[in-house]
């Protein structure tokens, strides 16, 4: 020991203190209790070969089980970790990539004990680009009294990229069903394409909009026994009632009664005697006349006393 101290030369006290601190630190680390935990590492695939796409399911992260000094492991759990896979030179087909300790750059003393998934399977396929028609799909029906008049999609077609094998027989792409059971008027809905487990990618990220035109449902209804009135001169009418065929919104027509309707003939300035007069109908707004049966009645106007 005396010889060791003597070899320090000048500033023996400071050098000895430094040595003692280094030994104490080494002893502290050396006896630190080992810790084991699972790290979640985001997975990043880079340098995908041109004209290729990944058609296998790729996890968003790797679960890496590690063991090492507690302080080092704790520091790793507080750090955003990512694992990069370089696809340079990969050909079409299935590739199984084994993942072991050499694939990870962890601090000294930290050991990798397990990786999931392992191996990582990546399947590449050559791609093509096609322009396909968009088929809008609606789900449900508007409330009672309303109906869908038209459904139009904007844009009507879209360019997509996908594997040759999947694109060969595609004629169109459907939207994910749009719920319309709440609509009582025209509306524009944002839509997404239903790829149905196909490995497709949009070439254009423009929004897909579906114009759903909903209007009150129109029906035809016949009303019998609608009374005909003569105005302004009183007259005896034959027949005194007519049958009306009306068209209009269901919500208006379903509660309408014959007594709510008005039919009349114009007797203004007519001389006494027999006349054949056209029947006029006064209808509520929004309702149109389909037919009057009969369209004319006979009116007898008597002489004034």
Written description of the protein model:
The protein has helices at 2-6, 12-30, 70-77, 164-167, 250-253; strands at residues 34-46, 52-54, 61-69, 82-86, 93-97, 111-116, 120-135, 138-139, 146-154, 157-163, 172-174, 178-179, 187-191, 201-202, 208-216, 218-231, 236-238, 241-249, 262-266, 273-278, 280-282, 288-293, 296-301. With 305 residues, it is mainly beta. The strands form six sheets. Strands 2, 5, 7, 10, 11 and 14 form a six-stranded mixed beta sheet that branches. Strands 21-19-16-18-22 form a five-stranded mixed beta sheet. Strands 4-1-3-6 form a four-stranded mixed beta sheet. The termini are far apart.
Average pLDDT metric = 89
Which second-level CATH architecture of the largest domain applies? Answer: Beta Complex
Instruction: State the helical fraction.
Output: 10-25%
Fourth-level CATH superfamily of the largest domain: YbbR-like domain
H-E order: HHEEEHEEEEEEEHEEEEEEEEHEEEEE
- Helix tally equals 5
CATH top-level class of the largest domain: Mainly Beta
How much strand?
over 45%
* Overall morphology: rod-shaped
Strand-pairing-aware structural class: mainly beta
Query: How widely separated are the two ends?
Result: 154 Å
Summarize the biggest pleated sheet. 6 strands, mixed
How many structural domains in the coordinates? 3
Radius of gyration (CA) equals 43 Å
Q: Report the uncertain regions.
A: none
Would you report the number of β strands?
A: 23
């Amino acid at each position: 020991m005396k010889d060791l101290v003597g070899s320090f030369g000048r500033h023996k006290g400071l050098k000895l203190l430094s040595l003692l601190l280094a030994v104490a630190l080494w002893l502290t680390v050396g006896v630190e209790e080992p810790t084991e935990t699972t790290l979640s590492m985001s997975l990043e695939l880079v340098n995908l070969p041109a004209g290729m796409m990944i058609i296998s399911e790729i996890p968003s992260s790797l679960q890496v089980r590690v063991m090492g000094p507690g302080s080092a492991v704790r520091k790793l759990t507080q750090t955003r970790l990512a694992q990069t896979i370089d696809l340079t030179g990969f050909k079409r087909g299935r590739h199984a990539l084994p993942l072991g300790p050499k694939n990870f750059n962890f601090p000294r003393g930290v050991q990798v004990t397990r990786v999931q998934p392992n191996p990582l399977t990546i399947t590449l396929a050559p791609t093509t680009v096609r322009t396909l028609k968009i088929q809008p799909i609606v789900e449900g029906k508007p409330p009672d009294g309303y109906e869908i008049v038209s459904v139009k999609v904007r844009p009507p077609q879209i360019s997509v990229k996908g594997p040759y094998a999947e694109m060969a027989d595609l004629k169109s792409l459907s939207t994910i069903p749009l719920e319309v059971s709440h609509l009582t008027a025209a509306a524009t809905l944002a839509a997404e394409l239903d790829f149905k487990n196909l490995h497709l990618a949009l070439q254009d990220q423009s929004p897909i909009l579906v114009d759903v035109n909903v209007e009150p449902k129109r029906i035809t209804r016949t009303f019998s026994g609608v009374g005909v009135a003569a105005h302004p001169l009183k007259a005896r009418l034959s027949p005194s009632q007519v049958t009306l065929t009306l068209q209009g919104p269901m919500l208006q027509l379903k509660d309408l009664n014959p007594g709510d309707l008005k039919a009349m003939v114009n007797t203004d300035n007519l001389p006494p005697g027999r006349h054949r007069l056209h029947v006029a109908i006064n209808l509520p707004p929004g309702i149109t006349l389909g037919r009057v049966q009969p369209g004319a009645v006979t009116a007898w106007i008597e002489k004034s006393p």
